Amino acid sequence: MNFKKIHHIAIICSDFAKSKDFYVNKLGFEIKQEIYREERDSYKLDLMLNGEYIIELFSFPDAPERPSYPEAQGLRHLAFEVDDLKASVEELNERGIITEEIRTDPYTHKQFTFFEDPDGLPLEIYER
């Protein structure tokens, strides 16, 4: 394999309007494209971070819930790199997003913390 980079991450949400507001207005992702697929009664929102396409946000009617806790099998969490963790935590908290206590990675000695999207998907911010 000659992978170059991760192209995108796909997320299926339970409430499209709520998740769109969270990722766009609270986390600051840019909208690249929004499509309503009538045949599937489904929205697809392409989101960019710093001009780079990164997340596909989908809505599907009656999508089943998925257990989401840190030690479950499957994707554990999505992590975003920040320059100033404490400032990022303050900004998230000001926007009504609850974060866990800041921790320090015992191997890299970098600080990090977790928060959740509207469907409980674990998200991490990790200081560079």
Number of domains: 2
Could you give the count of β-strands? 8
For the largest sheet, list the strands in their spatial order.
1-4-3-2
Spans of at least 5 consecutive residues with low confidence: none
Q: Approximately how much helix is present in the residues?
A: 10-25%
Rough shape? globular
Query: Nearest-angstrom radius of gyration?
Result: 16 Å
* CATH hierarchy: architecture of the largest domain: Roll
State the secondary-structure class. Answer: alpha/beta
Query: Main sheet, how many strands, which sense, barrel?
Result: 4 strands, mixed
Beta strand %: 35-45%
CATH superfamily of the largest domain: 2,3-Dihydroxybiphenyl 1,2-Dioxygenase, domain 1
Mean residue pLDDT? 91
Please give the count of helices: 2
> What is the CATH topology assignment of the largest domain?
2,3-Dihydroxybiphenyl 1,2-Dioxygenase, domain 1
The level-1 CATH class of the largest domain: Alpha Beta
Q: What is the terminal separation in angstroms?
A: 28 Å
Helix/strand order = EHEEEEHEEE
How would you explain this protein's 3D organization?
This protein folds into two domains: 1-61, Roll (2,3-Dihydroxybiphenyl 1,2-Dioxygenase, domain 1); 76-128, 2,3-Dihydroxybiphenyl 1,2-Dioxygenase, domain 1 (Roll). The mean pLDDT is 91. The protein has helices at residues 16-26, 85-94, and strands at 9-13, 30-37, 42-49, 52-59, 78-82, 103-104, 111-116, 122-127. By secondary structure, it is an alpha/beta fold. Strand 7 (111-116) and strand 8 (122-127) form a beta hairpin. The protein contains two helices and eight strands; from the N terminus they run E-H-E-E-E-E-H-E-E-E. The strands form two sheets. The chain has a four-stranded mixed sheet, covered by helices on one side. A four-stranded mixed sheet has the order 5-8-7-6, covered by helices on one side.
